[in-house]
Every structure is written in structure tokens, then in C-alpha cells.
Write a structure and sequence with these properties.
By secondary structure, this protein is α/β, with parallel strands linked by helices. The chain contains 14 helices and 15 strands. An eight-stranded mixed sheet has the order 3-2-1-4-5-6-14-15, sandwiched between helices. Helix 5 packs across helix 6 and helix 10 packs across helix 11. The radius of gyration is 21 Å and the shape is globular. Bound molecules: 1,4-dihydronicotinamide adenine dinucleotide and pyruvic acid.
């Protein structure tokens, strides 16, 4: 199989979908890898490193898309990339389609087989989302601390406080991977941390992990309103896989926050959990202010630490991509139910239920969409 790796074009997206080590794994399995010239530079991988590992370096992104059977990316394709879609092309990347209706439409109309990293699931865990959630969670506390500084427009709070002065309050909504990693960093920074989750079991686990270093609260509108009012830094970290994030923090709640407080809505890639986080921002211009509160809504946070993130991401994506390349997509998803859960679009249908529901399409199972092709080894 030909695997294509285009350079990422999203604002300040310096990650790349394969490292030279990944190229070598594909080469050893008998595949060909086409890497766009300069694709790895932002992550510290030179064209020569890829060439040494056996990749062909391609000038011109259109040539990568045209020749590849499977495109591996990091972020969802942007509009300028839709022209490269074609029937039967396999696209393996983050997609977040519930928040990307135009992309879903283009993939559907062009018959692309689109497999989303973020919905590949193993026993209710999301192995291809986890490492980037670890990165974004850790960054969330650090970024929040930075924007709380007066010189960055914040209220002038040091999260750790000092002897005789209160610590800053951090409220984290969603105690999964992002939430846990944000809590680790916020605790490390000396903050007073509260985590809110809907799952009583998860709250118990968090209590076991952090003991009295955090307060835990059940997610309901009353508790959220109280905790948001108190927070100097609010971190949105809720996920319902594939679906648009629920707007748990209303505009009225945001109005109760102190001027110069900060919201880092990590869940913005799925639409965000805060009503006033109504648009995605970029690393170039990461914040906006509403009701005196600084909102940070960058949908590719790990793109700012590309060396760490590229290695962490490809550690987990390459084994799945190898299954697709070695067996062909139909056999790979038939034999691996975890990978099948990643298929969001196939043969002109939306094949992930939550995405279909949120975007107003009929849900069609992967089996139905691909018909008898699924039982044939391709
Ligand atoms: N902005 C960015 O650059 C990045 C964003 N993300 C996003 O961060 C979000 C969180 O991801 P993960 O932590 O990996 O998900 P996760 O599945 O590990 O955790 C989500 C948590 O939300 C909780 N939850 C669900 N409904 C809730 C409710 N109504 N109230 C409170 N908690 C509720 C769940 O019980 C779970 O503990 C996702 O949208 C993910 O795509 C992840 C990485 C990078
Ligand atoms: C999860 C995701 O979309 C990212 O890491 O950019």
C-alpha cells in the first residue's frame, strides 16, 4: 500500500503524522511511504531522516494525495484540501466531525473512507486520543496560569499564592484524561483544585488518585454554577465520544466569574462546554474576552509542543495504520472492532451514530455502508 503524509497546514500545527521510525515500520512490512517535502520540520525531523528510513520525499502536496491509498494526517483536512478527496481513499486522522459539518459533507459526497483517531475505542477507552489529551490537559493548567498574569490581561493571580495569601482556584469540568492531567499540573502549581464529573465511579477513582489534594463534585447545574463562580481558572474537559460537547457552563454562569478570570475550553474541538466559547481560536491569536473573562479556545493545543506530541501520537497510531496497510481496510476493520469504531464515514454514509445524530444525517452501520465489500478481503 502507498501511505501518504502531507504537511499539516492548520495554524501553528507543527505535528506530523509519521516519524522516521514509523516510516521504517511501514517499509519493513513491504509498503511505500510518501512524505511531503518539509512535512516533519516543525517536529524536528528533516527530509533526510525520512529518506534514510526509506520514504520517498515528494514535492507538491497534490502528488502525495493523488498517489496514496491511505493518507495519514494529524488534524482534520481544511477546505483547501477537500479537492484531493476521492472515492475509496482511506483517511486516517483526527476529524471531530460533529463540529465540522462541511468536512463531513465533503467526505460523504466524495466517498472517502474516513477513520477518526478520536473514536477508535478499546473497552471504552480512546487509545488514539489519550496521548493528545494528556498533552492538552497538562498544557491547560500551564496556559491558564500564564493568562492569569496581569501582563497577559488576567486578574493578576499566582495559582500557588504565597504564605498569607490564598491559592488560586481551578475548576475542571470532566475528570477523564484531560481533566486528570490538568489536575496533576494544577496541583503541582499549588492551586486549590476542584474536579466535576458525571460519573460517581470516576469521582471515586479521582479521590483515590489525588486524595485530599482535590475536591470532587458531582456534575449538575447547581454544583457547576457554584464552582464556576468561584473559579479563577475554569478548564472544560468533558467528552461524549463523537458527539458535540454539552454546553454545561451557561453565559449567565460566565457572567458571575471575576473579571480577568480565565477559561481554557479544551473540549472546543467537539464544540466546547462553555456557551461563550462560541468559536475556535488559533495559536497566533489564542484568546478573546467576553464578560471580562479571558477565553482560550485553541482546537489543536498539542500543536504547540510538536516534538513531544508527534512522538506520543505516532507511538499509538502506527500499529493501527499498519493493520490497515497489511490487511486492507475491509479486513482490518472486520477483524478489529476497536478500529471499526473509528470509521466515521464510508461509501457516502455517516457510519458513527453520534456524528450522524448531531449533524442530522441517517446513521448507517459500517457493514451496511460497505455492503458485501466488508466480507471480501481487499
Ligand atoms: N483542544 C485540544 O487541542 C484538545 C482537545 N481534546 C479534547 O478534550 C476533551 C476531553 O477529552 P478526554 O479527557 O480525552 O475525554 P475522556 O473521555 O477521557 O473524559 C471525559 C470525561 O467527561 C466526563 N463527562 C461526560 N459528561 C459529563 C458531564 N455532563 N459533566 C461532567 N463530566 C462529564 C466523563 O465522565 C469523562 O470522565 C475531548 O473533547 C477531546 O477531544 C483533547 C486533546 C487536545
Ligand atoms: C485531539 C486533537 O484534535 C488534537 O490533538 O489536535
Amino acid at each position: 500500500m502507498f501511505i501518504g503524509v502531507p504537511k499539516e497546514i492548520k495554524n501553528n500545527e507543527n505535528r506530523v503524522a509519521l516519524t522516521p521510525a514509523g516510516v521504517l515500520s511501514f517499509k519493513n512490512a513491504g509498503h511505500s511511504v510518501l512524505v511531503e517535502k518539509g512535512a516533519g520540520i516543525g517536529s524536528g525531523f528533516a527530509d533526510e531522516d525520512y529518506a534514510k528510513a526509506g520514504a520517498e520525499i515528494i514535492d507538491g502536496v497534490e502528488n502525495v494525495w493523488a498517489k496514496a491509498d491511505m493518507i495519514m494526517k494529524v488534524k482534520e483536512p481544511l477546505e483547501s484540501e477537500y479537492q484531493y478527496f476521492r472515492s475509496g481513499l482511506i483517511l486516517f486522522t483526527y476529524l471531530h466531525l460533529a463540529a465540522e459539518p462541511e468536512l463531513a459533507k465533503a467526505l460523504k459526497e466524495k466517498g472517502v473512507i474516513a477513520i477518526a483517531y478520536e473514536t477508535v475505542s478499546v473497552n471504552r477507552t480512546l487509545p488514539l486520543l489519550t496521548p493528545m489529551s494528556e498533552v492538552a490537559g497538562r498544557m491547560a493548567a500551564q496556559i491558564g496560569a500564564q493568562f492569569l498574569q496581569k501582563n497577559n490581561g488576567g486578574q493578576g493571580i499566582l495559582l500557588a499564592g504565597v504564605p498569607g495569601v490564598n491559592r488560586g482556584k481551578v475548576t475542571i469540568i470532566g475528570g477523564g484524561i484531560v481533566g486528570t492531567n490538568a489536575a496533576k499540573m494544577a496541583i503541582g502549581l499549588g492551586a486549590d483544585v476542584t474536579i466535576i464529573d458525571l460519573s460517581a465511579d470516576r469521582l471515586r477513582q479521582l479521590d483515590d488518585i489525588f486524595g485530599n489534594q482535590v475536591k470532587t463534585l458531582m456534575s449538575n447545574p447547581y454544583n457547576i454554577a457554584e464552582a464556576v463562580k468561584e473559579a479563577d481558572l475554569l478548564i472544560g474537559a468533558v467528552l461524549i465520544p463523537g458527539a458535540k460537547a454539552p454546553k454545561l457552563v451557561t453565559e449567565e454562569m460566565v457572567k458571575t466569574m471575576k473579571a480577568g478570570s480565565v477559561i481554557v475550553d479544551v473540549a472546543i474541538d467537539q464544540g466546547g462546554v462553555v456557551e461563550t466559547s462560541d468559536h475556535v481560536t488559533t495559536h497566533d491569536n489564542p484568546t478573546f474576552e467576553k464578560h471580562g473573562v479571558i477565553h482560550y479556545s485553541v482546537a489543536n493545543m498539542p500543536g504547540a509542543v510538536p516534538r513531544t506530541s508527534t512522538i506520543a501520537l505516532t507511538n499509538v497510531t502506527v500499529p493501527y495504520a499498519l493493520q490497515i496497510a497489511n490487511k486492507g481496510v475491509f479486513k482490518a476493520i472486520t477483524e478489529n472492532p476497536s478500529l471499526k469504531l473509528g470509521v466515521n464515514v464510508a461509501a457516502g454514509e455517516i457510519t458513527y451514530e453520534a456524528v450522524a445524530k448531531d449533524l442530522g444525517y441517517n446513521y448507517v452501520s459500517v457493514e451496511e455502508a460497505l455492503g458485501k465489500e466488508l466480507s471480501e478481503v481487499k
